[in-house]
Amino acid sequence: MSGELLINVTPSETRVALIENGTLQEVHIERNGKRGIVGNIYLGKIIRVLPGMQAAFVDINLEKAAFLHASDIRTRLITADKNDSEDVEKDIRTLVHEGQHLMVQVVKDPLGTKGARLTTDITIASRYLVMMPNANHAGVSQRIEDGGERNRLKSIVTPYCDEQSGFIVRTAAEGAGDEEVRHDAEFLRRVWNKVAERKKRKQTKMPLYQDLDLAVRVIRDFVGGGLERIRVDSKLSFEEIKEFTQEFVPEMSSIIEYYPGERPIFDLFDVENEIQRALQRKVELKSGGYLIIDQTEAMTTIDINTGAFVGHRNLEQTIFNTNIEATQAIARQLRLRNLGGIIIVDFIDMSNPEHKKRVLNSLELAMSKDKVKYSVSGFSSLGLVEMTRKRTRESLEHVLCSQCPVCDGRGNMKTVETVCFEILREIVRVNRAYDADKFIVYASPAVSESLNEDEYHHLAELEVFIGKQIKVKSEALYNQEQFDVVMM
């Protein structure tokens, strides 16, 4: 697999595209006015305690109050040897109280009507280490299996642990030099000292600590991910990224390039058009089949259809081939659109158990490239495949789109005929309730035209029925469902 990052930077936003084997796989977008806050550390104030929910609302100087659950409040009892600890049984009323200030970290961005999710279990990550200010020990990622290497890494960071803080060695540290790991430990110690200093000053208007910006954060997260090249179209951002990589990820410094080309960087690999296609419900398959993807607040549903694909053998084989092709498209679309939560996949019905097994295996294989945690269940009794994918950030649709002001998020509008009949009923209602000489109806051009032409006979009958004149006027600024009945 060959991977490449394209980084597009403007004064208002930063966009990062991950290209694998010439195809867009992921898009990360961060707008300066709506920058994500996961990882930020704040000095928050408890504004309300909810015993029934075992949670509290916390003011961290954002538009919406943040949410802190009792299970996310760190309360540890250190044992005599001070190396082990045990959890304390938690009751939110014994842990926090209204008006209390405490240090918290954001673990989930605000989403929709929900505020940010918080924890008091503070961590700060670097290239090789994660600092845990509330711990007092050194740990090593379980993915580093070699015993000798684990001992070596642990011995490097242990001297930096004290009664107030500890470290976890990340998987990326395997094989790293002693100086590199020590450098990270010293860097994180300096960062934490700065945070502690800001806390003493009771800094509440700004974060005590703010995570790296998108471009640098993505590069940090993709270390060891098989990237061959990183291209940046901003000279200033290129220099900042270059400086960061030289200090923290020197092995990636050589693959970073400044892109000065006249052609927009996202026109490479057709990224702009791919983003537009990722906002559509319908995803075409090469065979002629297609997916229909519907994202709601509760879940995402994916429906597979054969479309124009009739195959060259029997129907069962055609269905199987379409479902297999769909598994690759599903895995890519989940990453590209960053869809999370509950996902229901409605594959085309298959009667052959072996075909079902192979489709599931194909889906698992396609999903294995995803860095985000996920799980795939087998076929249910209704023939549906249930999946979950961890929500890590806003979906592409939520970042780039807003709710339709006309249909109010329903995804459809009343027909012209329906609106016409609503207007006729409204005239009858108003006529019974009030004394008027005549009525004027203001409606959208399409509805006005229909009332004056297709539905004119109904309008004429109503005039005879109520014995009053009804005039219809077109209002260009009205949407199809909008109208006013005015008494004269």
TrEMBL record:
Q: Which prosthetic group or cofactor does it need?
A: Mg(2+)
One MF term in the entry's GO annotations: rRNA binding
Identify the main location.
cytoplasm
Name the Pfam families for this protein. Answer: RNase_E_G (PF10150), RNase_E_G_Thio (PF20833)
Q: Where is this chain's protein located in or outside the cell?
A: Cytoplasm
Query: What keywords sit in the KW lines?
Result: Cytoplasm, Endonuclease, Hydrolase, Magnesium, Metal-binding, Nuclease, RNA-binding, rRNA processing, rRNA-binding, tRNA processing, tRNA-binding
Query: Does this entry carry the keyword Glycoprotein?
Result: no
Could you provide one GO biological process annotation from this protein's UniProt record?
tRNA processing
Question: Is rRNA processing one of the keywords?
Answer: yes
Task: Enumerate the InterPro entries for this protein.
Answer: NA-bd_OB-fold, RNA-bd_AU-1/RNase_E/G, RNase_E/G, RNase_E_G_thioredoxin-like, S1_domain
In the UniProt record, which is one GO cellular component term? Answer: cytoplasm
PROSITE patterns annotated for this entry? S1
| Sequence ranges assigned to domain S1 motif in this UniProt record | 39-121
Q: Which family does it belong to?
A: Belongs to the RNase E/G family. RNase G subfamily.
The molecule here is called Ribonuclease G
Q: Which organism is it from?
A: Thalassotalea mangrovi
